[in-house]
Design a protein that fits this description.
With 96 residues, the chain is an all-alpha fold. The chain has 2 domains: 38 residues; 51 residues, no CATH class. Helices cover 58% and strands 0% of the residues. The two termini are 34 Å apart.
Length: 96
């Protein structure tokens, strides 16, 4: 993809992106089409699940912070529910 292209173009030519509502509907329809319980999968829970898996596999809070667009690390730590001891251990393991 080129930087100006959208992953899911909108239906109207002058609006080249999908709305939050359209994205929510897209996720709901996709989850339903593969036979999963729609109420168990929401756009935000899927976002959180992905970064939680990245954190668990890499222990890289900085990467997760960047992916989430957080400006402060403590926001990322709270978002993931990371324990203070875990966060400190990871921070100490990374040399600057």
């Amino acid at each position: 993809m080129v930087g100006s292209e959208y992953l899911w173009p909108g239906r109207f030519h002058e609006r080249l992106h999908i709305s939050t509502r359209q994205y929510t509907r897209f996720v709901r329809d996709w989850v339903s089409s593969i036979g999963l319980e729609v109420t168990a999968y929401r756009t935000h829970s899927m976002r959180r699940t992905k970064v939680t898996q990245i954190y668990k596999k890499t222990d890289n809070l900085r990467a997760v912070q960047l992916l989430l667009g957080h400006t402060k690390m403590d926001s990322t730590v709270r978002y993931l529910g990371v324990e203070l001891e875990d966060a400190l251990a990871i921070a100490e393991a990374i040399e600057i």
